[in-house]
Amino acid sequence: MSRVTEVSIGLATCGIAAGAAEVHSRLVSSLAGHGLPVKVKRVGCVGMCYNEPLVDVLSEDGTHHTYGHVTVKDVARIVSEHLVAGKPVEDLLAPEDGFFSRQVRIVLENCGLIDPESLDEYRARGGYEGLKRSLFEMTPSQVIDEIKASGLRGRGGAGFLTATKWGFAARETSPEKFVVCNGDEGDPGAFMDRSVLEGDPHRVLEGMAIAAYAIGADHGYAYVRAEYPLAIERLEKAIVAAREAGLLGEHILGSSFSFDVVIKAGAGAFVCGEETALIASIEGRRGMPRRRPPYPTTAGLWGKPTVINNVETLANVPWIVRQGAAAFARYGTERSKGTKVFALAGKVNHSGLVEIPMGMTIREIVFDVGGGTRDGKAFKAVQIGGPSGGCIPASLADVPVDYESLTQTGAIMGSGGLIVLDEETCMVDVARFFLDFIQKESCGKCTFCRIGTKRMLESLTRICAGEAGTNELDRLIDLSRKVKRHSLCGLGQTAPNPVLTTSRFFPD
Ligand SMILES: Cc1cc2nc3c(=O)[nH]c(=O)nc-3n(C[C@H](O)[C@H](O)[C@H](O)COP(=O)(O)O)c2cc1C
Questions:
Q1: How far is ligand 1, taken at its centre, from the CA of residue 270, in Å?
Q2: Is 345 in a helix, a strand, or coil?
Q3: Ligand 1 atom closest to Cα of 155?
Q4: What is the CATH number of domain 339-422?
Q5: Would the pLDDT of 392 be above 70?
Q6: CATH code of the region 4-92
Q7: Structurally, what CATH architecture does the domain formed by 427-505 represent?
Q8: Alpha-helix residue ranges (DSSP H) falling in 410-496
Q9: Residue 1: predicted pLDDT
């Protein structure tokens, strides 16, 4: 019998919502009652949200036993039978369901494994090695070259090449530049960025610091929506710990490079995730987009060159610098390298946080990783990319998940929301849900988005109520195309996607 040394509990928002905080305190008091010298560790989301609360028991010989759906009542058995008597409680173990077998963990390599509030644990797994390597072994342009060789594209939606963006900012001569981490994550159904911030906040800070070194910035903002209080709290603690350890602030690690990060809590408007609206929001103005160019890399925060990257984009960066571009580019397809994190939700058995190599098909994600649809219902479609994305039908389930292939379907990769729909889902309702969301979130600055999305919603509502005339659908599609073409920012330009993909693939 191997002695138990550590017990981890998933205490991200998903775990806490399922009752993990109560399980945690019962476990702590139960272990104290037995006088057991076992370390109890809080970890972030391991991905298996469908099995929360999760308790992982680690033995001296390195074996893990993971308990799922743990209740406060189960704690007594886990402690007395497993931790004291050394016999795992078979009937409480989470079933071995292949959830991880096809996943590749780059962004999520530490999520659910380390204590997000421990800098030591992050460093023990290679944390801040990428920053160290950048500062002492590479010039800023070599860092950009490394990111370029990796093929990393922005994970916030558009898939713009990260190194190209950094290169634009690097060549600006302004003495003041900024790096902004976009953690607004407003898509309904998406929780990737929140999970990364809650589970591995130092990783995002390290990514920001490397970006800052590469472009010559000394100030950073982490823009995180205020509805993510735990993410903000953990990021705040990580900033304090990194400063104390000389990893943020003046002369990082004794080098000539200085960089610090401030958190800005966003008030929860979807449009504030759009980069120019986000800039306005940080500056204290109303979050409204402006026409580009100039792009933020030329004139961003307070008119200074600014690189804005998504949480997941930045979370890839330390891994790439530490492991090398070639290791990253080994995964994925010709033009979409690496992995993508998805928040898998809807009518699927394994709803949770998954990271898959680019190029995996939708079918493989839904069935091999997601365990198929619930209750054996027929798989109908996936909604991908949130309000800017669209529905891809089961007949296209073999489409690989990469930027170009998804765009060809009329949907987009988006930031990582993936909602599985089954035979009982009404496709018109799905389109209407997203359109309703969009027209409420439209900032009102441009006419096509402000009024166009409203008229589109009215049209869809007439169709649903059986009050539509014979050419209603044609008019809706015509208006959709106009809203797409003439809106000022990405919100309006992509707002018709759910309607257009639905009418294309589900005309009946
Ligand atoms: C309406 C709208 C909302 C957006 N929301 C987000 C968001 O929540 N997070 C994000 O990273 N990017 C969001 N974006 C994309 C950003 O404008 C920007 O392209 C992105 O942050 C760039 O980072 P990346 O190059 O790392 O992807 C949004 C865009 C639009 C049009």
A1: 10
A2: strand
A3: 27
A4: 3.10.20.600
A5: yes
A6: 3.40.30.10
A7: Up-down Bundle (1.20)
A8: 427-441, 447, 453-464, 472-486, 490-494
A9: 64
